[in-house]
């Protein structure tokens, strides 16, 4: 019996070769397929049976997340009413290694009647599906990785790679960027980095730890403790920002002045000109500033320099922005 690692290496080698072989077969048909999808006013409808269908679902998902509206249509359900989801403006991508899948062949008369663009992805350029398509993308392989030669392995790898090539070519042609990607992934880490602003996370109002420069350090400690942000913002009578006092300032003050520290005023202890950030800036930028300055909070001023809010490192990390 072959060594398990040898078997795995053989499988990976065959599948890698199958994908690499696609490069040599790429031709004007691929460019035509991209152009058909790009110019379409509808959606891309991906369909396929069995393993081809599973790969098709992934291709549809990749297209949809990169700026090309797409969904998967099960070919067996299509002939029982689901074809109503397809319009003449749509583009069909039909996947079949043999090109003779009965359920897909049954869709051809409908697609022709309503003049729906058809792109086939097959392993047989002379098959029924390939000949009926406006464009055929050749995904044929030399061999499957399965020793029986029948389990879809290398063929599905090649199909998925071709789908990725389509998606990436289209996103590039559309000028799709990180902001666009984040728009379709608001729950993902990139979406959070690009959409969550400082103003969405900052503490304001009664949650804002503010004290006057005349406040004793005993009072400052109480304010810092009650607001649980590890800092207090020192402001004047008009709430304009004068400085900041942190947990670290308190520890250093006690080490330097001992018990006398608690009789000092906040104005004597505060750090002047604290780091600030606009509420319109991205939370990711606030995180970058904090990391660069080795601090845990940033003050948010209003347009007149008054203390409007404060954002803490933990507020950002809780949102998964890293």
Mean pLDDT level: 89
Strand percent estimate: 15-25%
Oligomer: single chain
CATH topology of the largest domain: Rossmann fold
Q: By helix and strand content, what is the structural category? A: alpha/beta
CATH superfamily of the largest domain: Glucose-6-phosphate isomerase like protein, domain 1
Q: Quick one: overall form? A: elongated
The biggest beta sheet reads: 5 strands, parallel
The CATH architecture term of the largest domain is 3-Layer(aba) Sandwich
Number of domains: 2
Compute the separation of the termini in Å: 48 Å
| Helix/strand order | HHEHEHEHHEHEHHHHEHEEHHEHEEH
The unreliable regions are none
* CATH class division of the largest domain: Alpha Beta
What does this entry look like structurally?
By secondary structure, the chain is α/β, with parallel strands linked by helices. The chain has two domains: 173 residues, 3-Layer(aba) Sandwich (Rossmann fold), CATH 3.40.50.10490; 121 residues, CBS-domain, CATH 3.10.580. Helix content is 47%, strand content 16%. The protein has a five-stranded parallel sheet with strand order 2-1-3-4-5. The protein has a four-stranded mixed sheet with strand order 6-7-8-9. Strand 7 and strand 8 form a beta hairpin. Helix 2 packs across helix 8 and helix 9 packs across helix 10. The longest helix is centred in the first third of the chain and has 22 residues. 36% of the residues are buried.
């Amino acid at each position: 019996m072959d060594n398990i690692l040898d078997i795995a290496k053989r499988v990976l080698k065959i599948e890698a070769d199958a994908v690499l072989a696609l490069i040599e077969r790429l031709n004007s048909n691929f460019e035509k397929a991209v152009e058909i999808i790009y110019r379409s006013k509808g959606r891309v409808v991906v369909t396929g049976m069995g393993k081809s269908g599973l790969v098709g679902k992934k291709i549809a998902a990749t297209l949809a997340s990169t700026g090309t509206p797409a969904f998967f249509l099960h070919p067996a359900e299509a002939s029982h009413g689901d074809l109503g989801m397809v319009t003449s403006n749509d583009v069909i991508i039909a996947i079949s290694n043999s090109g003779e899948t009965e359920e897909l062949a049954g869709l051809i008369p409908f697609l022709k009647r309503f003049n729906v663009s058809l792109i086939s992805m097959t392993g047989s350029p002379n098959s029924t599906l390939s000949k009926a398509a406006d464009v055929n993308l050749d995904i044929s392989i030399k061999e499957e990785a399965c020793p029986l030669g029948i389990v879809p392995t290398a063929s599905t790898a090649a199909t998925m790679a071709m789908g990725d090539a389509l998606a990436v070519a289209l996103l590039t042609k559309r000028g799709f960027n990180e902001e666009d990607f984040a728009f379709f992934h608001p729950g993902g880490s990139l979406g959070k980095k690009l959409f969550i602003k400082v103003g969405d996370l900052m503490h304001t109002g009664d949650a804002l730890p503010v004290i006057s420069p005349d406040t004793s350090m005993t009072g400052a400690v109480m304010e810092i403790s009650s607001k649980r942000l590890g800092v207090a913002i020192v402001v004047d009578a008009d709430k304009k920002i004068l400085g900041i006092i942190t947990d670290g300032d308190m520890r250093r003050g006690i080490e330097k002045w001992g018990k006398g520290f608690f009789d000092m005023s906040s104005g004597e202890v505060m750090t002047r000109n604290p780091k600030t950030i606009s509420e319109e800036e991205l939370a990711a930028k606030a995180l970058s500033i904090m990391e660069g300055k080795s601090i845990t909070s940033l003050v948010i001023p209003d347009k007149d320099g008054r203390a409007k809010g404060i954002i803490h490192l933990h507020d950002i990390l809780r949102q998964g922005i890293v």
